Amino acid sequence: MALIEQERALTGGGARTGGRRSVLRSARKTTGRGRRPAFGLGLTAAAAVAAATLVLVQAVQPPVPQATRPSAREVLLAAAVSAGQQPADGDWWGIKLIRGVRLREPGDRYTLQVTAAEQTWIQAARRESHWTVEQYLGARPATPPDEQAWRADGSPTVWTYRDGGVGRALLLGADHERLTAAPGEARSDERADTNWRLMLAGDPPAELTTLEELLPTDPERLRTLLQPSRGTPTDLMNNLADLIVHVPVSSRTRAAAYQLMASLPGVTGEGETTDQLGRTGQAITYLRPDTEHPRRQERTRLIVDPATGAPLALEELTPDTGEIVEFSAVESITWTDQKPELPNPHRLTDDTQ
What is the spatial distance between Cα 275 and Cα 312, in angstroms, rounded to a whole number? Predict the structure, then answer.
């Protein structure tokens, strides 16, 4: 099997296990205007087209026969080999994502999927700030059965919520009490780094000055950076998944993250699956505590393309039915010498971040 051959090419054994609470997860909800650092596709017409072409994918898919499924370790180590071979040169490092959350419509007749296009751009030679681009893309029925129920409801394009508001959709640019099908305007914001490159893991030593030093390319140094003094392997897994999917990093850093993740317990390979943009990849899953309901667990699914090492999506699923609760789908990872397009820009000096 090709995955096994790539695993052998990379390493002959696993690393030690470790743990960490996901500081990235809490940071996402308090950054800037009360929203997380941006990730996503991003701009005006292109973003609207992406929203219109999102695939309505059923969360529950037929299980892959166990005999044909590569293990999580095989998938991750194959992805590490491939990721480490990708070029990563340029003045600007960027990652573009489409993020989404699902919630029931006010009458509880069907489920809506709310999406936003987001980007994060950092300059390799500058540590003072980075740019984000965010655009609300609108709400639509989440699955084909939801679309049928939506049509039976008269195909509304506005949904008004009373008690409790729109929940996590606020983080995607939605109004507090109303969802709309129409997209919003793109906005670019310059943000202070505030050690953002360290994923809020702690202050960098003064002697560390380069981006590669701040984001290690060695699995054990990456463990030291992302593992808390008190934590579990699940906490470390959360930080690694966030780094792989949400942060513009070098190919070697992403490869190290895959290697470290492959050494952790509790990760399961689930075989081939389809993400919310209609792309197929290998899925690995793990369970973690539900931060909003301590007695419950959430199932997290990372979808990767082992052939290229590219992360495709990170999804939160219900542990019992496997339905999608929230997701981030990676549109592209870019290193370029060309300054990115920044629509409707707001600099740090324009307002308080």
Answer: 7
Dihedral class, residue 194 (left if φ above 0, else alpha if ψ from -120 to 50, else beta)? left
List, in order, residues 6 or more apart from 148 with CB less than 8 Å away. Answer: none
For residue 261, what are its two tokens? 């993740």
**Closest to 133 (Cα-Cα) out of 200, 35, 26:** 35
pLDDT score for 228? 75
Q: Please name the residue that has the structure tokens 């509790």.
A: 266
Rg value, the chain, Cα: 20
pLDDT at 229: 74
Rounded distance between C-alpha atoms, residue 301 and residue 315, angstroms: 5
C-alpha–C-alpha distance, residues 219 and 214, integer Å: 13
pLDDT reported for residue 171: 93
Q: Which of helix, strand or coil describes residue 81?
A: helix
> Is the distance from CB of 133 to CB of 44 less than 8 angstroms?
no
Locate 229 and state its tokens. 């003094």
SS3 242: helix
Q: What's the rounded Cα separation, in Å, for the pair 219 and 97?
A: 25
Residue written as token pair 């490159």? 197
176 with 170: CB under 8 angstroms? Answer: yes
**Residues sharing a CB contact under 8 Å with residue 206, sequence separation 6 or more, in sequence order:** none
pTM here is: 0.78
Report the C-alpha gap between 162 and 154 in whole angstroms: 20
Tokens 């040169």, residue?
Answer: 89
Consecutive 10-residue runs of the chain (353 residues): their mean pLDDT? 46 37 37 36 38 47 64 97 91 94 96 97 80 97 98 98 89 95 97 56 45 77 84 87 90 95 94 96 91 80 97 94 95 93 90 50
Q: What are the helix and strand counts (H, E) for the chain?
A: 9, 12
3-state secondary structure 254-307: HHHHHHHHHCCCCCEEEEEEECCCCCEEEEEEEEEECCCCCCCEEEEEEEEECC
